[in-house]
């Protein structure tokens, strides 16, 4: 190889090392998950407590389990299209504790609507059904 070509090759390798990793995330699911994680990072327990107080709820560990369940679901799956999807998921997840009845005792205005509100998450528009609570 000529010395001129060798110099070009070395210059290219050096520039590449200096540039570092400039790869672009092309996995759409990973991009969306990252965006949702940034959204979730704006929430904190103090905000949840303040919202709970406005709703007349004294937050305890049982409430927080439901809230974290909703937040994890949002992180993994994004915004639920329908409130029923979340209601069914919560009913299944908390079946051993009493399912929907248990959840209604925790969230009198509805485990989906009120739970999402305390979790700092958007409420699907179809949660006006009394089974989900009222989205206000």
Sum this structure up briefly.
This protein has 136 residues and is an all-alpha fold. It has a domain at 27-119. Helices cover 61% and strands 0% of the residues.
What would your notes on this structure say?
The model has no long low-confidence stretch (mean pLDDT 84). With 136 residues, the chain is mainly alpha-helical. It has a domain of 93 residues. The protein is built from seven helices and no strands.
Structural class: mainly alpha
Uncertain spans: none
Counted beta strands = 0
Order of helices and strands: HHHHHHH
Rg: 23 Å
In angstroms, what separates the terminal alpha carbons? Answer: 73 Å
Give the % helix.
55-70%
Largest sheet: none
Large-scale geometry: elongated
Query: If you average the pLDDT, what whole number results?
Result: 84
Strand content: under 5%
Number of helices: 7
List keywords for this structure.
136 residues, mainly alpha, 61% helix
Describe the secondary structure blueprint for this structure.
Elements: H1 3-19, H2 28-40, H3 45-54, H4 61-77, H5 83-93, H6 99-106, H7 113-119
Helix pairs in contact: 2-4, 4-7
């Amino acid at each position: 190889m000529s010395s001129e070509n060798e110099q070009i090759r070395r210059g290219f390798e050096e520039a590449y090392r200096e540039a570092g990793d400039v790869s672009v995330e092309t996995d759409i699911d990973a991009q969306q998950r990252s965006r949702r994680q940034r959204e979730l990072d704006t929430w904190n327990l103090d905000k949840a407590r303040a919202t709970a107080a406005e709703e007349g709820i004294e937050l305890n560990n049982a409430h927080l389990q439901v809230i974290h369940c909703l937040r994890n679901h949002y992180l993994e799956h994004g915004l639920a299209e329908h409130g029923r999807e979340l209601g069914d998921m919560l009913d299944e997840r908390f079946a051993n504790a009493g399912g929907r009845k248990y959840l209604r005792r925790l969230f009198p205005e509805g485990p989906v609507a009120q739970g999402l509100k305390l979790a700092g998450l958007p409420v699907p528009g179809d949660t006006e059904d009394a089974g989900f609570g009222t989205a206000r």
